[in-house]
Amino acid sequence: MNAPATLPPPGTPAKAGAARYRYWGWALLVAAAWGVVAWWGDDLGAWLARRFPRVLAAVGAGKVPDAAAFASGRLRDAVALGALALGTVWGALGLLGKGLGRRHEPFGRVIWVAVALVVLGNAAAWLAGQRALFWLALQARGHENQAAFRAKERLLGEIRQRPRLAVVGSSQANTQFREESFNAALGGEAWMVDLHFPGSTVADVFFVTERFGPGEVEAFIYYASPLSFASRELTTARDLLRPSDLAELHRLGVWRELPGRVARYTALGLAMPLFQYRGPWINAFTGTPALPGGARGGERKPLQGGDFSEFQQRAFVRMLERVAAKGQRLVVIAGRYRPSLEARDDPAFRRQYAAFLETACARWPGVKLVWQDELLPQNEADYRDGTHVTEEAGERFTRRFVEKWKEWHAP
Question: What pLDDT digit, counting tens, does each position of 7-17 carry?
Answer without folding.
Answer: 445 445 555 55
